Amino acid sequence: MKAAIIGATGYGGAELIRLIQHHPYLELGTLVSTSQTGPVARVYPHLSHIDRSFEGLHVDELCANNDLIFLATPPGVSSEWTPLLAERGKIVIDLSGDFRLDRPEVYQAWYGKQPAPANWLRRAVYGLSEWFGEEVKEAQIISNPGCYPTATLLALLPLLQAKAIDPSTIIIDAKSGVSGAGRGLKQAMLFGEVNENLRPYKVDGHQHIPEIERFASFVAGQEIRVNFVPHLVPMNRGILVTIYAKRMNNYSIDDLSEIYQNHYQKASFIRLRQQEWPETKQVQGSNYCDIAWHIDERTHQVIVLSAIDNLMKGAAGQAIQNANLRLGWPEESGLTFSPLFP
Ligand SMILES: NC(=O)C1=CN([C@@H]2O[C@H](COP(=O)(O)OP(=O)(O)OC[C@H]3O[C@@H](n4cnc5c(N)ncnc54)[C@H](OP(=O)(O)O)[C@@H]3O)[C@@H](O)[C@H]2O)C=CC1
Ligand SMILES: CC(=O)N[C@@H](CCC(=O)OP(=O)(O)O)C(=O)O
Known about the structure:
- Helices cover 33% and strands 21% of the residues.
- The chain is α/β, with parallel strands linked by helices.
- Pathway: Amino-acid biosynthesis; L-arginine biosynthesis; N(2)-acetyl-L-ornithine from L-glutamate: step 3/4.
């Protein structure tokens, strides 16, 4: 199966190239760039062993030469291209936020971009693989989750489903490495401004809030609002979220362990850590999500920690996991390598 990448010059695109190159069933198809032509090595010297070039975006040619199309493009791009590709029968996996929200006005409010038409939004399946894998198997448009929502929802959903926490008390404290912001030049991402700095941002509203609330509400069966504050950390890769919520129904730490074990017993990429706290270094370069939990018996507060690599489980790794599910291959195909350590 040939897989094209639109946005192949970005960080998500480069990670997809790396993963597809080692995939047992996928082959690199067209590598689309709207700004670059010429060899991949000119943009990414670390990929100089890959004898391929970037090409412009020509829809008919792209669809004729590829089976599967990944979009790793900024917000507002996929909403335009996905309908054209899907109408030509292609499977589309979108790494951007364009198809994660079901209501166009909500997308417009949080992303400030023109949304895809509502009927197209409804056709997309949310690719949080461990929760919606059965739907992904049948989907033509797979909307890959955001990096923060992936780390957050994987930790939060089992507790919401089990009614182990009070849904009105959820606080999500999140931290990300700089690759989460993409490869584009931005003054705020200069070494001198990021190094030795810990920066909260979008405290007054991050675009991942409605995505987290949509799927938390769906699983809990009630409308949920969360507090979410992201921080930029001077490291390349990784996300760590710490979630706080009030315990309900007097659940014990053993009950929480049982909830997580029951839910994730068959999930190859979820590593449940008991009394060992997740760290970004322990998942770096891999598709794992490490989750641990604790109850403060004095305050009745549940504390859950979750770590992923934002470019892997938070983007390209999960996109490949979804391609595997969709195409009927073992879910782990091309993703079984261990984290890079140290
Ligand atoms: N970085 C991360 O950790 C994560 C990113 N995401 C999402 O994935 C998507 C890609 O992210 P990332 O790789 O980091 O971003 P980058 O900024 O690194 O790359 C985006 C790429 O999109 C291409 N592009 C820009 N404008 C257009 C356009 N109008 N039409 C077609 N292609 C265009 C650019 O390539 P060129 O100019 O060569 O065409 C660019 O290389 C984004 O939506 C992001 O929000 C999701 C989860 C995690
Ligand atoms: C560190 C950093 O800047 N991270 C980005 C991650 C967003 C992202 O990946 O975009 P989607 O909305 O498409 O998921 C941010 O917080 O905006």
